[in-house]
Design goal:
271 residues; mainly alpha
């Protein structure tokens, strides 16, 4: 793999992981569109590179959300230990962990029972369009509910929505934002919650996948470049999304998803 390809794929992963546009869908479509064959059919190496990119986005998001992670994590641990704590923060920290349960179970079920879904380009495009339109419908709903009012059943629903991202084109952030907006959560608060929800899922998926990772020595520079690019672009994606959704809706992302999906279907039809 060239360092340029590693850099570009790292940027694609980082910017799209926390935008409601599907990082896995873009990572499937970009090499397909440009006819890159960096891994030569070596699925294990491709999976290892995917783990490296997700590690990068995790580091970028943790760097940006470190104060939230520290506050909720400290409060939750103090609560479990029976020490004085901030009850609302501990409760929200617990709900974030609850969202990871159905998402993780869905991910394990898919890994154990299906093949790679990213090769079905038409399905990736259809999911970009369909789930994009669903996001648009959800975002038009009124939302003045704070995250403090969420209950365990709401957290489970959010986790199920997040777990649908096993299919490239759905988008972990997009599906979870759609569910949060249908639950009436205010837009900016929903985005911050969704980003926090993604951290244990990305970490868990990375650890589960890293067990069998073997990286040839000549691939380390490409892996390092891709991981660094994903980390930096992931930080900027979280920052930009939170600023953007504080003042406007997600119509632009909906339009982009629909146009990207239609463009992929068009290219597929004429090739």
């Amino acid at each position: 793999m060239s360092l340029l390809h590693a850099l570009l794929l790292g940027l694609v992963q980082g910017f799209t992981e926390f935008l409601p546009v599907s990082s896995s869908g873009h990572l499937a479509l970009v090499p397909w569109l440009f006819r890159w064959d960096d891994f030569g059919g070596d699925q294990a190496l491709e999976n290892a590179f995917d783990v490296a990119l997700h590690l990068g986005t995790l580091l970028g998001a943790l760097a940006y959300l470190r104060d939230d992670v520290r506050r909720y994590g400290t409060a939750l641990l103090a609560s479990l230990a029976g020490r004085p704590h901030d009850a609302p923060s501990a409760r929200l920290g617990g709900l974030v962990l609850v969202t990871a349960v159905p998402a993780g179970l869905l991910g394990l079920l898919v890994l154990s029972s299906t093949e790679d879904l990213g090769d079905r380009t038409w399905l990736v495009a259809a999911c970009l369009i369909g789930f994009g339109l669903l996001l648009g419908v959800a975002d038009r709903r009124p939302g003045d509910r704070g995250v403090g009012s969420l209950r365990v059943r709401d957290a489970l629903l959010l986790g199920v929505a997040q777990g649908l991202a096993f299919q490239p084109g759905v988008s972990r952030a997009g599906a979870a934002l759609t569910a949060a907006r249908f639950l009436g959560v205010e837009r900016a608060a929903a985005a911050r919650l969704v980003f926090l929800m993604s951290l244990p899922v990305i970490a868990g998926a990375g650890l589960a996948s890293a067990v069998d990772v073997r990286v040839p020595a000549e691939w380390w520079p490409a892996f390092a470049v891709g991981t660094a690019a994903a980390a930096v672009s992931g930080w900027f994606a979280v920052h930009g999304m939170l600023r953007l959704l504080a003042s406007r809706g997600m119509g632009g992302f909906v339009a982009y998803r629909v146009l990207a999906g239609l463009a992929a279907l068009l290219v597929l039809a004429v090739r």
